Amino acid sequence: MAYFFTSISHARSLAMGMACAEGMTKKPKAGPALTPWLHARIQEAAGLTLDQPLTFGDLWHAPGSPPIQPNNVTGARSIDLRMFTTSLSHGRPYIFPHTESTARLFYQHDELAPYLPPEVMRWIDAHALEYVPSARYPGSDPTVDKAQKLGLREIPPPDSFPILAARMSLSVPVLFAAVPLWAIDYEDRRPDRDFRRCPFSDGGISSNFPIHLFDGLAPNWPTFGINLEDKLEGHPNMTFLPERYLDGIADRWTRFDQAKKSASQMGGFLISIVSAMQHRNDNMLSRMPGVRDRVVRVRLNK
């Protein structure tokens, strides 16, 4: 078994033209928007009907996993999908399936419903958890009355969590609205502790190529990355994978200063500032041995 991780920035752009702010269809004659289109494609690939959303648990227990699991692995997963999304309120990435017991997430039905196909929303409502304050830290969480007053329920457990993770992972700023969830604000004093809205945006804000999600000191399986990028002028090869130690060690370039018009140079300059803030960690890792030699770069024409 091996893990494969791919950057989907180009695949994401294919769907952008079909979406509105929430990613749901507003003009049926124009065709499906991003979320119903994505839901239909995922269900088709999984061989499931639209009213039985594919979940992380379905992937974990999918048939075809290795018949002999490593002895040191408990609960090995057939398909181990993980997705990045970014909490704008907390200023950090969240990984789905969500398993952080100290950062529980909640939702309001009426607030979340406009972002999802009805079948997916019904599934979430059927598998959501009723809010219960933490028994491990008595008195640290808001009361049940506060959750009920806001109409909040806890998101479904990881094995029952559906396509919402994909929608949260590609909430591209400006193009798509951030997905509204709620979290407990632990900066409030205990007697006044309450829930606060916690919008989630694109995972690429935190890391656009988080291949490190599957790494470890002694990983059970190797991880391979597939990075989609623009074709390089003067290079006929459309794929690149380092074959020798020094291959792929050089920096990649953002050539904003070569634009013919000064306005384009200024626009490229500003975009490059944001890109450097967003991709600095990924760009540094991509040059390191042990990373660069297991990431194939697939180049695409315009």
Helix/strand class:
alpha+beta
**How much of the residues is beta strand, in percent?**
15-25%
Q: Major beta sheet, specifics? A: 4 strands, mixed
Return the average pLDDT rounded to an integer: 83
Q: What value does the Rg take, in angstroms?
A: 21 Å
**H/E series:** EHHHEEEHHHEHEEEEHE
What does the oligomeric state look like here?
A: single chain
Q: Helix amount, in percent?
A: 25-40%
Q: Name the shape in a single word.
A: globular
Distance between the termini: 34 Å
Count every helix, treating DSSP H or I runs of 4 or more residues as helices. Answer: 8
Q: Give the low-confidence spans.
A: 7-19
Strand order of the largest sheet: 1-8-10-9
The total beta strand count reads 10
What does this protein structure show overall?
It is a single chain. The protein starts with a strand and ends with a strand. The chain is globular and about 65 Å long. It has eight helices and ten strands. Residues 7-19 have low confidence and may be disordered. Helices cover 25% and strands 17% of the residues. 25% of the residues are buried. A four-stranded mixed beta sheet has the order 1-8-10-9, with no helix packed on it. A four-stranded antiparallel beta sheet has the order 3-2-7-6. The chain is of the alpha+beta class.
